[in-house]
Each structure stands twice: as structure tokens, then as C-alpha cells.
Write a structure and sequence with these properties.
Length: 379
């Protein structure tokens, strides 16, 4: 089983209109104190024991809102905390196209980062402005080209669709321009308007018109057909990769495996317990400085809940849920637990079983949330 760690950097140079992640504007924030707190939390969670990580994911927020020197300190502190990685590890950092320069790229390369995930979202200038993004289309091309020149051979691009005012033609153009840059991996998610975002405020005020579910489904259809045409394999509902470039870190999540989470608002899954860290940075810092576990929640995951998660996480993957893994993990047969539900979903054309795996059908991909809900036990 692979070991993974997620590190949250909650700082941004600009707050996007759709984002509900734990983040703050970086100006006047205690960044250096935060980097020291990551060291302290890591030491506590790893019990001051050096632990090899197969995957390391630095997300946010915007990790590259940190200076090159602060990025060096970040990785130095993670190593001091006991996290270990080498060229066998997948080490990912989220990057904004207008917040990355050679100094930062060199700092990442020197730290052993071998995968960058670029937040592009769209190649349409008007829609970039709607989203509150500050980068230009040219920034994206420049970032990809420079990263390649410096030896980054695993580049992912994030896209969004079903954006307010977005047309089918705009979406097709975005996909075409993304593919033209030759990324190794593409993630594409339909917009979900969440509370506590500018989009949500505009929606409540009648100033924002979201696209319909049918329009979103049409855009998803286009995504699937175009990326297949260009040689990208869909390995998860919203993720596509060239051969061998699937996100090893995210596969840990989808395969329902344990992972470490460090930082304000980070989540982790260890010893059949899920925990969530304190969100406000000052409160997180205070807790860590006191030598406490900086958690706001810790919840044991019951056997039934583990089974539920195994299904609705695993079914997101093209590989689906392995029946023999289910048996090994839970010491009971999949069909004994979910036989009736499985039969009904197969009859409805939403699931199929082959080669010892349970997988979504094409129809099932569009109704994924309904399928996942079917595997929840009655409470």
C-alpha cells in the first residue's frame, strides 16, 4: 500500500470567485510562522520518525504564492519533520500560471518536485475574468513551455466547464488549446457553486445565471469524445492521462487508502479515523505552538462506512471496485453485502461486472451520485 501526504498552503495572491477552499490573501499573513507550524505538526504526527512517502501533494490555496525562498523552507521543514521522498515518489505542486517564475521553478526542481498541476480553468479571456482569475492565456503557454525546458516531464492542467455564460464553442476551444500544449494529464470538473463564494452571492442576488444540467452534460460528452480522440485515457470520472501519468496521489484517495494531511484545514485518514484540521490560520498556529493536535474533527470510520466509501470512491475510477480486494479488506463477500443493490443497478444499466470488477456504465457516469447513494446503508 502506498503512503501519501497532503500539505495545505492556504495563501493566495487573489481570491477566485468560485473557490470555497480554505484560503486567505497572502499579504500581511504569518507565512514564516506557518511553515514552522507545518514542521511541528509533521513531527508530532510522524512521532519524529522518518517516513518514506510514495506521493506528496502540495495544494492550496496557491503554493506558488510563496517566494522561492519560502518554497525552499517548506520542503526543508517537511524533511526535518520526517517526511522522506526520492525520485521514485510522485511529488506534485499546484501552480498558478501568473505566479510562477524561474526562481520558483528552480526551487521546486531542487526540492524533488516532479509533477506540477497548473490551474488553467479556461482559455477564454472573458471567462477568466468572470472566474476572477488573474492570469492570461499567454501565461499558461509560457508556464508549460518553461517547465518543460527545466525538465518537468509530468504536467497536469486543470479545466472547468459549465461556467456562467460559457458556450459549447468556447468549451471546445478550451479543450483544443489545452491539448495543443501537450499536458500529460488533464482534470476537468463541472462548476459547482458553493456557499461563501462570490459566485454564490451573485447567484443569490440574481446576478448570475448558471448553465442547465443538460448543458453541463453536453459539455461533458464533448470532453470525453475529444480527449479520447487525442489519446487521453479516462481513468476517473473527471481525470484523463497519457499512459502511466495518472495521478498516483489522487489514486490513494479513490482507492480509499490512508494518507497524512498537514496544515490549516487539511484532512487526513489514518488508522481508520478521518481528521480535519482547524481552519483559521491564527487558531491553527496557536494550537500547534501549544504542542496540541491542531484538529477540529476526528471521526472513527466504522466498518459499514468504510464499505460505503470503498464503493463511492472506487466507482469513480475506470478500474472500478475489485471484488477480491473488497473481500480481502473487509473479510466478507461483496455480493453478500451489496448483492441486491448491485443487481438492481445492473438491471437499470448503471453498473456492470466483468473480470472481477464492478464498474459504472457510460450511463452510470452521468448518474454517478445516484449510483453512489445506493450503496449507503440505512441509518
Amino acid at each position: 500500500m502506498k503512503r501519501g501526504a497532503y500539505i495545505h498552503i492556504p495563501f493566495c495572491n487573489q481570491i477566485c470567485h468560485y473557490c470555497d477552499f480554505n484560503k486567505v490573501l497572502i499579504k500581511n499573513q504569518p507565512v514564516d510562522d506557518y511553515l514552522q507550524a507545518l514542521l511541528a505538526e509533521g513531527e508530532t504526527r510522524l512521532n519524529r520518525t522518518v517516513t518514506f512517502m510514495d506521493t506528496l501533494y502540495i495544494g492550496g490555496g496557491t503554493p506558488t504564492s510563496l517566494s522561492a525562498g519560502q518554497l525552499q523552507t517548506l520542503f526543508s521543514n517537511l524533511k526535518l519533520a520526517g517526511l522522506s521522498w526520492d525520485e521514485r515518489s510522485e511529488v506534485t505542486v499546484e501552480v498558478n500560471p501568473d505566479g510562477i517564475d524561474d526562481d520558483r521553478l528552480y526551487a521546486l526542481k531542487d526540492a524533488g518536485v516532479n509533477r506540477i498541476s497548473i490551474g488553467v480553468q479556461t482559455f477564454d479571456p472573458t471567462l477568466l475574468e468572470t472566474l476572477g482569475r488573474t492570469h492570461s492565456v499567454e501565461d499558461v503557454s509560457r508556464t508549460v513551455a518553461r517547465a518543460r525546458e527545466l525538465g518537468f516531464d509530468n504536467i497536469s492542467i486543470d479545466l472547468m466547464f459549465a461556467l456562467p455564460g460559457q458556450t459549447i464553442e468556447q468549451w471546445k476551444t478550451t479543450i483544443e488549446k489545452a491539448v495543443a500544449l501537450g499536458p500529460d494529464h488533464i482534470s476537468a470538473y463541472g462548476l459547482k457553486i458553493e456557499a461563501k463564494t462570490q459566485f454564490y452571492n451573485w447567484l443569490q442576488a440574481g446576478k448570475l445565471a448558471p448553465l442547465s444540467e443538460d448543458e453541463e452534460a453536453d459539455m461533458y460528452d464533448i470532453l470525453l469524445s475529444k480527449l479520447e480522440h487525442y489519446g487521453y485515457e479516462q481513468y476517473e470520472i473527471s481525470n484523463f492521462a497519457t499512459r502511466g501519468k495518472e495521478s498516483a496521489h489522487n489514486l490513494i484517495y479513490w482507492r480509499n487508502q490512508p494518507y497524512l494531511g498537514l496544515g490549516a484545514g487539511a484532512h487526513g485518514y489514518q488508522n481508520n479515523e478521518r481528521y480535519g484540521n482547524i481552519l483559521p490560520i491564527p487558531h491553527y498556529l496557536k494550537s500547534v505552538q501549544k504542542g496540541e493536535w491542531p484538529e477540529r474533527t476526528r471521526q472513527p470510520v466504522s466498518l459499514k462506512e468504510q464499505m460505503e466509501e470503498e464503493m463511492f470512491l472506487g466507482l469513480r475510477l475506470k478500474e472500478g471496485v475489485h471484488i477480491h480486494r473488497f473481500k480481502e479488506k473487509f473479510d466478507t463477500s461483496f455480493h453478500d453485502v451489496y448483492g441486491q443493490v448491485h443487481a438492481e443497478l445492473v438491471n437499470d444499466g448503471l453498473l456492470h461486472e466483468d473480470n472481477g470488477r464492478i464498474r459504472l456504465t457510460e450511463k452510470g457516469k452521468y448518474l454517478g451520485n445516484n449510483v453512489f447513494a445506493s450503496f449507503l446503508f440505512d441509518t
